[in-house]
């Protein structure tokens, strides 16, 4: 179990250090329910939500990059009240804690969002997305707007290139954890329209920069840091944990290889030695019953299982 | 949506710009309907490398048989027989077909009519008469790749074609395809023509536009393919690709 916030009545405790990043699995993960076993994740992070509804951006929205992609959507969403009306019921049934990403637009709107989420069943925490131009004072204002209206723990998502500067002020202002970092912005030319398009950029190349920021931030603060940016394998995720992160968020890999998110979560959440059997870490355990074993792996081995007596791992597993 | 694997059995260079791939697929994919597509990615493709190798490609079927699907994709990158492909499917909804429709008018302008071919085949098999208008760059599309029973009309570059009034009057459903950067202008002008012709009395799903935004997730999660509509906004990857132009904010 990983405690991502201070101990207390509303502490955010996750069973696995791997979760999707905001904007990747929708408002409740339903888009991926047949592709990913969501119960294996540490938490669900919703798409960014604002108090007022926002329309989709005009022009190209998805532009391929060498080894990545630029996304410019304008954060379309139906507004917090509509999201709660239509999705909150599913949050309440979520197999893992739900972290609602609130876009830090203005303090009054953040206040309203926090008040609307307060008491919303299934919501375990608020992730506050900070604008790239935000200063330390802005973060304090936004956090105060949340604290005045809810006791839910607040995680602050920092922009990549100011994460190191803003981490300490965010902690001092009361953030329970930091997400390092939001994907940076970039500009590229869209081959279809010939236009220059600005937006957030994603890809494996981002890992090196995010990893450095995580290392620097985690040395500065005492609150948990959640690493995010460019994670595309279990080894990438482990690098973030080694750099000081308590948990990780995976972003566009989910779109490219959805199952990989679950594999990373299983690998980081369990014992890897069972991979040799073709089983995930949490699918095999000493003493597994014969029926269950055969159902999963066929007729081989495990013929001598005595009920109630744990059996050793099969011979073909590394010990 | 499910993830399955397919094997490229055959690659045909259909034209200078297109190749057709025969895929051996999970038999469940035989249920794919016109309008639905696949998100594809070679299983062995590295996550880094060329631009094309990162996001999944949207593959649009031109023919669906039991356990075999033929898709038409751009000529680049070149695929090799035997390549194992990871598929996410189905992407999108079937194109809504009007009941008792007997005359279908398809229009493609400045883009290859690939997404219309499977629909044409299915409607022809149902005994429906199909006319395809090719305008602008679509006129360069090789006609031998189209079902021979389809009537072909060559149009101009402004969503007009000879006997436009006659064909629009004759048709009891119109499906239009424009390049993604021209949706608002192209579908707007077509809808205006039809509105005037029918004196604003346009039945539901009478004229649909196909929206093929470049997809990021293809599952409805990222919202990048949102189509602004009256009432509820729609997602091309979940609710589309065909959207009733009566609903769209053009």
Supply the key terms.
heterodimer, A: 319 residues, alpha/beta, TIM Barrel, 4-stranded antiparallel β-sheet, disordered C terminus, B: alpha/beta, 6-stranded antiparallel β-barrel, 6-stranded mixed β-sheet, 3 helices, 14 strands, 14% helix, 33% strand
How would you describe what is shown here?
The complex is a heterodimer of chains A (319) and B (250). Chain A has a single domain (2-271), classed as Aldolase class I (TIM Barrel). Chain A is 29% helix and 19% strand. Chain A is built from nine helices and 14 strands. Chain A has an eight-stranded parallel beta sheet. In chain A, helix 4 runs parallel beside helix 5 (207-220). Chain A is globular, with a radius of gyration of 21 Å. The model of chain A is unreliable at 271-276 and 301-319 (pLDDT under 50). Chain B has 250 residues and is of the alpha/beta class. Helices cover 14% and strands 33% of the residues of chain B. Chain B contains three helices and 14 strands. In chain B, the strands form three sheets. Chain B has a six-stranded antiparallel barrel with strand order 1-2-5-4-3-6. A six-stranded mixed beta sheet of chain B has the order 9-8-7-10-11-14, sandwiched between helices. In chain B, helix 3 (183-197) links the parallel strand 10 and strand 11. Chain B starts with a strand and ends in a 6-residue tail after the last strand. The chains are: A alpha/beta (319), B alpha/beta (250). Chains A and B meet through strand 5, strand 6 and helix 7 of A and loops of B.
């Amino acid at each position: 179990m990983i405690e991502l916030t201070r101990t207390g009545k509303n502490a955010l405790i996750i069973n696995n250090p791997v979760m999707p990043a905001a904007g990747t699995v929708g408002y409740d993960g339903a888009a991926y329910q047949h592709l990913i076993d969501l119960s294996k994740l540490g938490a669900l992070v919703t798409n960014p939500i604002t108090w007022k509804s926002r329309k989709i951006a005009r022009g190209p929205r998805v532009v391929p990059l060498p080894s990545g992609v630029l996304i410019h959507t304008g954060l379309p969403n139906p507004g917090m009240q509509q999201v709660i009306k239509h999705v909150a019921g599913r949050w309440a049934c979520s197999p893992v804690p739900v972290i609602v990403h609130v876009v830090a637009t203005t303090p009054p709107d953040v206040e309203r969002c926090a008040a609307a989420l307060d008491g919303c069943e299934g919501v375990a925490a608020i992730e506050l997305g900070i604008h790239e131009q935000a200063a330390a004072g802005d973060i304090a204002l936004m956090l105060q707007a949340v604290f005045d209206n809810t006791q839910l723990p607040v995680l602050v998502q920092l922009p990549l290139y100011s994460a190191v500067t803003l981490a300490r002020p965010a902690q001092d202002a009361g953030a329970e954890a930091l997400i390092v970092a939001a994907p940076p912005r970039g500009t590229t030319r869209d081959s279809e329209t010939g236009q220059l398009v600005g937006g957030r950029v994603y890809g494996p190349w981002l890992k090196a920069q995010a990893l450095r920021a995580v290392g620097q931030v985690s040395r500065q603060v005492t609150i948990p840091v959640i690493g995010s940016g460019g994670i595309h394998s279990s080894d990438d995720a482990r690098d973030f944990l080694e750099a000081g992160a308590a948990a990780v968020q995976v972003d566009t890999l989910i779109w490219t290889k959805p199952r990989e998110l679950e594999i990373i979560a299983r690998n980081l959440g369990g014992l890897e030695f069972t991979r040799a059997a073709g089983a995930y870490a949490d699918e095999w355990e000493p003493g597994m019953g014969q029926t269950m074993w055969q159902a999963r792996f066929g007729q081989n081995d495990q013929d001598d299982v005595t009920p109630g007596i744990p059996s050793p791992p099969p011979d073909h597993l590394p010990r | 949506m499910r993830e399955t694997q397919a094997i490229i059995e055959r690659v045909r260079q259909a034209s200078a710009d297109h190749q057709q791939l025969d895929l051996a697929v999970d038999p469940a994919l035989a249920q794919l309907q016109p309008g639905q597509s696949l998100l594809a990615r070679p299983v062995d493709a590295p996550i880094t490398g060329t631009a094309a190798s990162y996001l999944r490609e949207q593959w649009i079927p031109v023919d669906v048989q039991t356990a075999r699907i033929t898709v038409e994709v751009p000529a680049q990158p070149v695929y090799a027989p035997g390549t194992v492909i990871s598929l996410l499917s189905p992407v999108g909804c079937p194109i809504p077909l009007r009941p008792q429709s007997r005359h279908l008018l398809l229009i493609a302008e400045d883009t290859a009519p690939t997404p219309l071919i499977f629909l044409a085949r299915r409607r022809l098999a149902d005994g429906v008469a199909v006319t395809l208008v090719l305008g602008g760059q679509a006129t360069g599309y090789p006609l031998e790749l189209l079902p021979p029973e389809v009537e072909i009309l060559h149009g101009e570059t402004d969503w007009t074609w000879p006997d436009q009034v006659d064909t629009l009057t004759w048709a009891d459903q119109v499906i239009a395809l424009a390049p993604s950067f021209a949706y608002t202008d192209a579908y707007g002008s077509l809808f205006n023509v039809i509105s005037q012709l029918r004196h604003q009395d346009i039945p539901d799903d009478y004229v649909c536009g196909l929206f093929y935004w470049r997809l990021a997730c293809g599952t409805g999660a990222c919202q990048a393919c949102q189509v602004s509509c009256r009432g509820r906004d729609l997602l091309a990857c979940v609710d589309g690709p065909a959207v009733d132009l009566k609903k769209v904010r053009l």
